[in-house]
Amino acid sequence: MAQSSEATGGLASVPALLQRNAREFADKAAYREKEFGIWQSWTWSEAEKEIEAFALGLINLGIKEGDFVAIVGRNRPHFYWAMVAAQSAGAVPVPVYQDSAAEEMAYVLEHCGARYAVVEDQEQVDKLIEIQDQLHQLEHMIYVDPRGLRKYDHHALHRFSDIQEQGRAAYYEWIEDLKARREKLTYDSTCVMLYTSGTTGKPKGVVLSNRNVIQSAKNACEFDDLNAGDEVLAYLPMAWVGDFIFSIGQAYWTGFCVNCPESPDTMMTDLREIGPSYYFAPPRIFETQLTNVMIRMEDASPFKKKLFDYFMAHARKVGPAILDGKQVSTWDRLKYKLGELFIYGPLKNTLGFSKVRVGYTAGEAIGPEIFDFYRSLGINLKQLYGQTEATVFVTVQPDGEVRADTVGVPAPDVEIRINDDGRIFYRSPGTFVEYYKNPESTADTKDAEGWVDTGDAGFFEPDTGHLRIIDRAKDVGTMADGAMFAPKYVENKLKFYPDILEVVLFGNGKDRCVAFINIDLSAVGNWAERNNIGYASYQELAQHPRVLETIQNHVEEVNKSVAEDEMLSGCQVHRFVILHKELDADDGEMTRTRKVRRVIVADKFKEIIDAMYDGKDEIYTETEVTYEDGRKGSISATLQIRDAQVQPVKAQKVAAE
Asked: Pick from 177, 445, 565, 634: CA 20 to 30 A from residue 155's CA?
C-alpha cells in the first residue's frame, strides 16, 4: 500500500504544502479568527510568515529535531501555526485535550517526553505548573493569552508573540538551519502524534507520518471535490484526529480557509456568520442542535408549530430523494419548494447550514431519525467510518448512495476484510506507523502485512457492497438465551429523543437488558419551565414522576422498534434508571471525545445494576464527583427503578441461513 510522494506532486510534508500555498494562494484567506466580536484574517502568505517566525523562534530557543511539542488550547490560528512550525523545525506536535485534568495532561506529556508546551492561557499554565514535578523533561512553556501571567517567573515561560519577534530578529542566524530542516522532511517523517481517547485503559500515542496525513487528505478531497474555495469551521478538539485531518491535512492540501470561533459559547453564532461549505460534527453536536430546534418549536405559536410539523413531514417523505437526484413527482417538488421558502431555508440559516455542500458525521453511530432529519432539509450529510489509527478514513458514502444504516464503501486506496467472527480489518496509506513506546499494542493491532484490527464488528451488504457496523466487537455479546447483545443499536434509538442525552445498556450474559439514562437538562428544564414545575437540582428533576413517565414512554416506543429487528429483538429494555448525575469525563465515566467508558460505568454503579436485576423498585446511592475547579465532593439520591413494557421476541434466523 505504500505510495511515494510523487503521487502528491513531490509535496512530502505539511511545511512543503505551506510553501506551495504561500506561492499559489498568496492573497487568499487561510485563517480567520473571531476576537472581541470581530473577524480577523490571515492570507496564506501572511500565515507562512507567522509560521516561519515561530519556527525560527523555536530554533533560537533550542528546539532539536525529534523533540515533542505539546499543544494545549482551543481552536486558534496560533496553535495550528505552532504545529506546522514545530514540523518545520523537525519536531513533532502533540495536541492535548484542553479540558483534560492536570493528571491526564501529566500522563501524555510525560509519556511523549515533551520538552516544549504551547498553551493558551493562565489556566493551562497553572495546570502544567501543578504537575511540573512529574515533567522533568519539560523546559519551556509558551503562552498565547498574557492575561494574569505578568507576575509569573518568565525564565522558562514565554509569550507566543515574543518568540516570534525573537525569531524575526534572528532571521539571518537561523533561516538556513530552518530551510535545511524543512528539506530533510520526507513522506515517512513523523507528522503528528495523537493520543487515543482511552476507553479501556491509558491513552496510546498514535504516530502518523506525512504519508498518512497527506495521502489521506488528498484522497478524501478528491472524493468529495473539495477545493480552495471551501470554508470550514474549526471548533472540535485539536487533539482529535478529525480536526487535524480537516483543519491541517485537507486545508493545506486544497488551500481552503480555516475559521476559528471566538469561544464555545459563540460557536453557533460564528457558524451562522461563516456559513461553511464543508462541515463535520460528531453525532452529539447534531443531537444537540436538533434538541434546540425542538425546544424552540415547543415555544412557538400553534400556527408556526402546525406549519413546521406539516412541512417537516413532507420533507421526511421526499427530501432525501430530492437530495439524491431521484424521481419525485412535480407536486411533491413544488410542495418541497414551498417548505424551503417557509421552513427549511430559515431553519438551515439558523443552524448555519445554508451553504453546506458536504457534511460528515463520525466518531460513533448516529441515530437514523436524526440523520434523516438533516438530510430531509436538503443538507448533504454523510457518514464516514474511521479511527485515529487510519488517519480518519476507512469507509465513506458516495453521493447518491447515502443511508442511515450503513457507513458506505471503502474509502479510496483502502482495503477491508472481515473475519469469520465479523471483526473488521483494514489497510491503507493512512495506516498509522506505530503506538509510541508500545510495540506490544502495535503488534496486537497491526500485523506484518499492514492489516489493522478495528475492534469493531460488522458485515458487507451483498447487494450494495456497503459496510454495516454492528457495534464495538468487545461490546457485542450474547444474552443468556443466545440472542445477540449489541447495546449501541438501542442506545442510539433512545438518544433520538431530545430529552435523552445519554444511554448505557447492560445485558451481556443476562436474561434481559436494563439501562442507565441521562436526561438532557436543557430540554427537560425547558419543559419544566413551560409546565410551571419547580426543581432545585438535576437529581430532583430527573426523579420527577412526570419525567420518569415520559422517559418510560420513550423506552417502550423504542422497544416496539427494536422488536421488529429479528437479530436484535432480544435487546429490548426491561428496566431502567434515570441516573442522579450526568456521566462526565472529569469523573472518568466518559472519554474527552464523549465516548462512554462502559467498564468503568458498570463498576462504579454496580449496586444500581444489581438492584435492577434483583427486582428492587428503588435504591439509595452516593457518588463521588469532581467539580470544575478540581475539588472532589459527593452527591446522593434515591433512584426510582422503572419497569418498561417489552414486545414478544422474534425468533432469530440461524446464521447459516
From this structure: 177
